[in-house]
Amino acid sequence: MAGESHNWVLMVSAQTPTNIAVIKYWGKSDETLILPVNDSISVTLDPGHLCTTTTVAVSPSFEQDRMWLNGKEISLSGGRYQNCLREIRSRASEIEDKKKGIRITKKDWGKLHLHIASYNNFPTAAGLASSAAGFACLVFALAKLMNVKEDESQLSAIARQGSGSACRSLFGGFVKWIMGKEENGSDSLAVQLADEKHWDDLVIIIAVVSSRQKETSSTSGMRESVDTSLLLQHRAKEVVPKRISQMEEAIKNQDFPSFAQLTCADSNQFHAVCLDTSPPIFYMNDTSHRIISIVEKWNRFEETPQVAYTFDAGPNAVLIARNRKTATLLLQRLLYYFPPNPDTDVDSYIIGDKSILKDAGLEGRTDVEALPPPPEIKGNISSQKYQGDVSYFICTRPGRGPVLLSDESQALLNRETGLPN
Ligand code: DP6
Question: Where is the Mvd1 C-terminal domain (predicted)?
Answer without folding.
Answer: 204-404
